[in-house]
Amino acid sequence: MDRVTSTGATPTSTLSTDLREDAERLLRELAGPQARLREDQWIAIEALVVQRRRALVVQRTGWGKSAVYFISAKLLRAAGRGPTVIVSPLLALMRNQVVAAERAGVVAATINSGNVTEWDDIHAQVAAGDVDVLLVSPERLNNPDFRDAVLPKLAADAGLVVIDEAHCVSDWGHDFRPDYRRIRTLIADLGSDVPVLATTATANDRVVTDVATQIGTDTLVLRGGLDRESLHLSVVRIPDAVERTAWLSKRLHELPGSGIVYALTVAAAHDLADVLNSHGHHVAAYTGQTDPSEREALETALLANEVKALIATSALGMGFDKPDLGFVVHVGAPSSPISYYQQVGRAGRGTDRAEVVLLPGPEDRQIWSYFASVAFPREHIVRSVLAALNTDRALSTAALEPLVELNRSRLEMVLKVLDVDGAVQRVRGGWLNTGQPWEYDTERYERLTIAREAEQQAMIDYQSTTACRMNFLRGQLDDPDLLPGAPGCGRCDNCTGDRQNTAVDATDLAAIRARLDRPGIDLAPRKQWPTGMAKLGISLSGKISDAPEVGRVLGRLSDLGWGQRLRALLDAPDAPVPDEVFRACTTVLREWSWNERPTAVIALDSPGRRLLTTSLAARLAEIGRLRDLGTLHLRPDLPPISAVNSAHRVAALNNAWETPDLTDVQGPILLVDALTDTGWTFTMAARALRAAGADAILPFALATPS
Q1: Rounded to an integer, what is the distance from CA 425 to the centroid of its chain?
Q2: How many other C-beta atoms lie within 10 A of the C-beta of residue 278?
Q3: What is the arithmetic mean of pLDDT over 607-630?
Q4: β partners of residue 220
Q5: Closest by CA position to 169, among listed 220, 206, 211
Q6: Cα distances (angstroms) measured from residue 294 to each of 119, 285, 290, 319
Q7: Would the pTM count as exceeding 0.85?
Q8: Is the pLDDT confidence value at 574 over 80?
Q9: Three-state SS at 181
Q10: 397-417 pLDDT, tens digit each
Q11: In a 3-state reduction of DSSP, which class is residue 652?
């Protein structure tokens, strides 16, 4: 692996001066009449177009990595080579790249989940040689039709293969995606004279080595410095979530231009957007749950400065290109300094100054822990997936789900990893066990866990450091230009000594707290039984006929208002319901638009929170003049219920309770629990109560994770 850091180590060129002038001309068409190729850009283009090498370019956001592959694609096409295939991770990135390509006369097409109806036409255009650049999502690489019918021809005819955001290839990277590992198969099938380019802005030494090794044995690494002279970094420490929101609401209009405000959860993004809009700021929420067409419209609005900010989760990140983005604010810290650098790198790419503000919270670690809890499962669970696929026919993910103790998203992740490892194969109709030997790499997963924990600690250290914040981030990414004893950036709050005033207006704070403290969200009932229940010996299928009514929850654990208090309540030792929480519960019940008022209340047996739940039910019975039915007890011989997979959870909860005699109870029953997550506990408890004679069940819980 050849390494070139910064500039200056130019390989001997065999290109004519005219060809470099062609590259310069294409750059001007892409980036404007004043643009000039950086020396490292030319080194990369020469390595790809002339030497047909494999190269990894690690350069900061805004450096011009996309110019390298678009210019190379055009030059290779002019020389009679086939189309360039770009593996690109996000729809926003694809849209921006197609627009950029058109400026240089590059005919680009994209295959992604947002243009399914166009796939056949695009495949035909590629086959006819009418497309210069084809952008595909990594997920497409293992679609059976694409993999078997389209990919072999692309591998045979490609003029260049580009892996954008290449840190996703490495399981050491901050945004690892199993689908990206399939790129190794694509590269392995390429001819020896087909160049490969991998690009990223966020990779430390470990990730650089991993990616470079995966794309070739003689990879040219072009790695530059990561200092961003336009970014002014600061940390504002305000422990209370509502006060942080009030602080941001007061100062958002002071931030330059338009920008992005990142939140750690979908609920927090919507809460922030709601509060900021109510205080006169023109903002909108942007999350992974936002409809693709709405996402595109929101991106366009931000590009045109029609909104002050998008309040976004990490769904808005890689590839979003707005050179004049004036600020990035994080309400809650990401779990990795590398991920943080990638997100703040959206700002100040074409401006002299951009503000970067981190507003960390004490709840951040709990959110990190939740995301860590859905990592790759333990060996016995993975083995159960392989065992379930020991059949003579393919099983779809839906058919496989009831057979293993994994929810849908984790099962899909496991299947992708096993597919990359060659243990399973995706075919039409589902998944097959290949019969190939497979080993659970315990040591590797333990190393990854240790690495993730180290990144989390580094993010805590970033918040508390008194040294230069930009140098801290550069150090986390092993910036080759960061020399020992290097001076600070001279721009961050630590270097300048400029500290943000954390005071908030008492009136504004009260108004925002009142808005965020409004208790109560709807709890939609489950409507369909999980598929495959018969395989678990339970005859439940189709529509749920005895489902509970629409329920209510006091608040989400991720809410900006109630979240912090509910997390503290559920983490504390079991105790009677606090008065403040009880009063909020009465408000939720008073505003509940039920068809018929409940006449009785019963508490769900809630291991670890029995006193909290029973005291809440008893006090609601007293204040609401409801009949107190006590507790719906779990059978004493029932094994602990830990399954999160829907089918297995339903099976575990089937006949789980000692059902009371309700024949003399008239009217709906209020069913009370401390925490609801999947909704299946309420569903199965309601089924048991209905079977015992209840007319209707109204579920009520203190909290839900999402």
Answers
A1: 25
A2: 12
A3: 95
A4: 2, 55
A5: 211
A6: 21, 10, 7, 17
A7: no
A8: yes
A9: helix
A10: 888 988 888 888 888 888 988
A11: helix
